[in-house]
Amino acid sequence: MKRKAAFLFAVMMLLLSCVFLVLTDDTSTKPSEEDIILIDGSLVEIEPPMNQTMADYAVRLFGIINDEHLSSNDCYFVLIPDKYKYLADKKAEYDEFYSYMSKSLSFATAIDVYDLLSETDYYRTDPHIKQDALVDVANRILESTGREYTTRYEENTVDTPFYGTYAHRSDLSVTPDELVYLTNDTIDNLYTAEGVSIYNFKKLDTDEPYDFFLSGNQTIVTINNENAQTDKRLIIFRDSFASSLAPLLCEGYSQVVLVDLRYIMSEYLVDFVDFENADVLFLYSTTVMNNSFSMK
To answer: To 5 degrees, how large is the angle CA 13–CA 19–CA 22?
Structure first.
């Protein structure tokens, strides 16, 4: 009965998501030129406060996944702030959002990372966070899950200027970013079961150069770390912000599996994801949580 109810809920939400996308002209996660403004030299999309309907949808969807698959797993939740919260001094909005989600997802241990970031940790031309600014975030997550972590990384800078997605969608003038990516013995020896590049240099010449990390959004990416000192695994339900973070989390796990619910219905997870001996992390930006109908 639970499985049938979950299936009916998934179908209903899929239909609702289609209606939502039609009504919003499918631009809610892809800002137009008019949506992008310049604050302190950084391009940014104005982010609204928490959308109650969207938050409740995400809570219900994650709850079904927990009930169906996660009875024996330790679960965690991280809410990534959009950079508008820092640039426009909107911490109170984030606190409300984080508090509501962490209390509603009672089955998951919430990990607050707001204090580890600032407006300068985000690309000026893109909504995402610089990978070298994510080391403390990764280590707080690994520490919270009882895993090993390191601060030993080599910083590598891409030769070409980095013009992120906001720069490609706006005529506003802004100084390009540098793209720094991290390597160490662990990252250098990672590989994915799907043949996805950890760092894909071909993506740097596209309108979505952040897709350099794990080749962009994928339905499922399985990263294997054969040199791990544990057989513990990590499942991440995620959006694009996890692409640059996931390699840093591999330090503490033998395998990290990233699942994007925007491209796979939760009803079919059992056919593609093994939850045995795995921690589970729900890691989402406030932007996607405010547009959660995109998940199924």
So the answer is: 140
CA distance 132 to 208: 19
- Please tell me the pTM assigned to this model: 0.89
Q: How far apart are alpha carbons 188 and 247 in whole angstroms?
A: 10
Beta strand ranges found along 29-143 (DSSP E): 36-39, 42-45, 75-80, 108-110
24-30-35 Cα angle (round to 5): 85
Lookup: tokens for 94: 């984030």
Q: What is the pLDDT along the chain (296 residues), one digit of tens a residue?
A: 444 444 444 444 444 444 343 333 333 345 555 689 999 999 999 999 999 999 999 999 999 999 999 999 999 999 999 999 999 999 999 999 999 999 999 999 999 999 999 999 999 999 999 999 999 999 999 999 999 999 999 999 999 999 999 999 999 999 999 999 999 999 999 999 999 999 999 999 999 999 999 999 999 999 999 999 999 999 999 999 999 999 999 999 999 999 999 999 999 999 999 999 999 999 999 999 999 999 99
d(CA 114, CA 98): 10
Sequence length of the chain is: 296
Convert 121-145 into a string of H (helix), E (strand) and C (coil).
HECCCCCCECHHHCHHHHHHHHHHC
> For residue 236, what are its two tokens?
């991440």
> Tokens 């409740």 sit at which residue?
56
The 3-state DSSP class for residue 72 equals coil
Residue 237, SS3 per DSSP: strand
Contact 238, 283 (CB under 8 A): yes
> What CA–CA distance (Å, rounded) separates 187 from 213?
12
Q: Could you tell me which residues are beta bridge partners of residue 122?
A: 129
